Amino acid sequence: MSHNSGQGGQTLAETLSQPQCWAKCLSELQASGDLESIGRRFAAGGEWLFVGCGSSYYLAQSAAAALSAITGLRAKAVPASELLLFPEAVLAGSAGLVPVLISRSGKTTEVLRAAEYLEGTRNLRTLAVTCAPGQPLEKAASAAIRLSAADEQSTVMTRSFSSMLLALEALAATVAGDQSLLENLRRMPALAEPLPATLHARILEFVAANHFADYVYLGQGPFYGLACEAALKITEMSCSYAQPFHALEFRHGPKAILGPEVLVTFLLSEQGRQAELDVLEEVKRLGATTLVVTNTAGERVRANADLLVELGFDLPEYARLTVYGLAGQLLGIATALKKGFNPDQPRNLSRVVVLEPAEKPEHAAF
Ligand code: F1P
User: Fold this and answer.
1) Is 132 inside any structural domain?
2) Which of 119, 154, 165, 195 can bridge 11 by disulfide, Cβ–Cβ 3.0-4.6 Å?
3) Residue 200 Cα, ligand 1 centroid: separation in angstroms?
4) Given the CA of residue 130, which atom of ligand 1 is nearest to it?
């Protein structure tokens, strides 16, 4: 069966192609030697700043958390607009900063202006991460990681998100000199290969059998950015209302909305597992429907998950991070189709947000 025909066929085909795409991106990066040369060039940096917009910002959040855990270096993520509008707050106290500008298209105005500001006004050397070589971002930055194989035709980002995150994890492993993590990252795509098709079928069935009014996505540490991205997927594709939270933050007010028509998706970490499982049990007790993505499900997960996605990969947590994005992408596609939306033509969205010069605020950085 071709996944390329009909409504949402393009987005679905790109989503399902991820394991092959990851393998290709990693082998091209290995062949080019880019990660080693970029790692050497920026190794002296004491702090990393990941910058993007939309999905690329959420990927920046996960990449910052992953880089800190892998290298022990300080890292944070901001939307490009925050850097442009509040540069003193974002850059306060930073020394030896390595800014990483993330943009699938390499054309998003805010990201380009951030690159120009950091390179020009701040005299900092920046790294671009993009799926579109030859675009203005690559020219504005001092170095670039290019992932042409991950580019999409779709407006909504799926494999570009996961592949750019994977490349940044491989860069972190290179900076840390962690050969074992690099090898595990390279083993991951083959292990993930059977997952998209089976998960797609299960999610279609789950969506057909249930009605949801609201969507919540929970994750801690590097999973928080992935939770934000999953919420964005269902919003972009199906025009549903969705909110992401750090899992334990959900208790502090938001749980008021819980009921059977609220689908709560948990991206369970290993590090925070016990505390996150307590939230899962509470959410279930309060009557919500739950979707759990985890590597290994124990009894507590099984008893509280309405839909369980158990990866079962013999890999460390940071080598399988990108795979946790798949369920949210497929849920977005299935929900869009059920609600009569076409994921290939998301309402009100364009593939790139390009601002006219007239919209440039009167501010030093912007
Ligand atoms: C980022 C982005 C997308 C989003 C939207 C517009 O683009 O915000 O995440 O889906 O349709 O662009 P980029 O800077 O990564 O190209």
Assistant:
1) yes
2) 154
3) 24
4) 15
> Which domain range does residue 276 map to?
194-339
Predicted model pTM: 0.95
Task: Verify that 216 and 166 share a domain, yes or no.
Answer: no
Query: Which atom of ligand 1 is closest in space to residue 157's alpha carbon?
Result: 10
Rg of the chain over CA atoms, in angstroms? 20
**Res 358 pLDDT > 70:** no
Give percent above pLDDT 70 in the chain.
96
Question: Which amino acid is it at 275?
Answer: A
Q: Which distant-in-sequence residues (6+ apart) come within 8 Å of 173 by Cβ?
A: 70, 179, 181, 182, 185
Query: How does residue 366 score in pLDDT terms, banded at 50, 70 and 90?
Result: low
**Mutate which of 51, 56, 158 for ligand 1 pocket (most atoms within 8 A of beta carbon):** 56
Residue list, ligand 1 pocket, CB within 6 Å: 53-56, 103-105, 108, 111, 155-157, 236, 349, 351-353
Please tell me whether residues 289 and 246 are part of one structural domain. yes
Q: Which of 50, 51, 55, 152 to mutate to test the pocket of ligand 1 (most atoms within 8 A of CB)?
A: 55
Q: If you take atom 10 of ligand 1, which residue's CA is the nearest one?
A: 156
Summarised one tens digit per residue, pLDDT across range 118-160 is 999 999 999 999 999 999 999 999 999 999 999 999 999 999 9
236 and 280 inside one domain:
yes
Ramachandran quadrant class, 94 (left: phi over 0; alpha: psi -120 to 50; beta: rest): beta
Please write the tens of the pLDDT for every residue from 209-263.
999 999 999 999 999 999 999 999 999 999 999 999 999 999 999 999 999 999 9
Q: Which residue CA neighbors atom 11 of ligand 1 most closely?
A: 351
